[in-house]
Amino acid sequence: MAIAKNGINGKFSGKVGTVIGYQLGNQNIIRTVGERRKPFSPLELLNQAKMKAVSEFLSPIKPIIKFGFKREASLGGRIGAFQLAQSYTRKYAIDLDDEGKPFVNPEKVLISRGEVQPPYQCTVQRDGHQLTVQWNPVVENDDRLVVLLYDLEFYREFRYLGAERKEGIECWEQENLKNTNKPVHVYVAFRNVYLETISDSVYCGTI
Predict the structure, then answer these.
(1) Dihedral of CA 54/55/57/61: which sign?
(2) Tens digit of pLDDT for each residue in 12-71?
(3) 127 pLDDT exceeds 70?
(4) Among 76, 68, 84, which Cα is nearest to 27's?
(5) What is the C-alpha separation between 145 and 160, in angstroms, rounded?
(6) Element (H, E) at 50
(7) What is the rounded CA–CA span in Å between residue 115 and residue 84?
(8) Cα separation, 31 vs 89, whole angstroms
């Protein structure tokens, strides 16, 4: 079912017969859906599997990814922040298992991209429900820490305004850690809240 906006002559989203309408960035796209008659090639099947792996990894943290990549997207462009993150992950963070099946390597994923200096010598420790993140401090720098905790399934916690870079340490009580029995992957970055810029994220391992 398609939904018409602003009357019959306006834009619409959804499917009408073989025509699909959707919004990509600030562009309204209409395309047809053709019927494929030949089987997919091995390369096409591999690309489809890669796209599926990327979608399964990023979709549960989509708002966070859009926050981290929004400065990379051109204002009014056809490619949005989430699409840019998908493209990066597919290009740089896909590995193949022993059976040749693609999967997303969490260590290679970026949850943010930007021009701010990233954290250096970053470590994370867990003591019960308390997390301690440490990094090499920079004196008189007001960038603020960003932290994502993600178990690749249901549990995710996002701290978008943590300690200042010059402090060198962030302690975070996170009682919801008890809601998962899986390894929790930790990503950190720094953002400048005045200029609204951010750094490439850094993978700190699992807790």
Answers:
(1) positive
(2) 666 676 677 766 666 677 766 666 678 878 888 899 999 999 999 999 999 999 999 999
(3) yes
(4) 76
(5) 7
(6) helix 42-58
(7) 16
(8) 26
Task: Give the residue among 180, 182, 162, 171 at the shortest CA–CA distance from 130.
Answer: 171
Q: How far apart are CA 186 and CA 22, in angstroms?
A: 34
Q: Go through the chain and tell me how many residues it has.
A: 207
- pLDDT, tens only, 150-203: 999 999 999 999 999 999 999 999 988 988 899 999 999 999 999 999 999 999
Contact by Cβ (8 Å): 147, 199: no
CA distance readout (Å), 142 to 46, 164, 186, 191: 44, 5, 22, 9
For residue 123, the cross-strand partners are 134
Q: What values do phi and psi take at 181, rounded to 5?
A: -115, 20
Say which amino acid occupies 40.
F
Cα–Cα distance, 78 to 75 (Å, whole number) = 9
Question: In the chain, what are the domains?
Answer: 3-32 (no CATH), 42-206 (2.60.40.10)
Q: Are strands 185-192 and 197-198 parallel, antiparallel or unpaired?
A: antiparallel
Can you tell me the distance from the alpha carbon of 87 to that of 59, in angstroms, rounded to the nearest whole number? 13
Instruction: Give the distance from CA 173 to its chain's centroid.
Output: 23
8 A C-beta contact, residue 196 and residue 146: no
Strand, coil or helix: what is 130? strand
**Is the pTM here over 0.85, yes or no?**
no
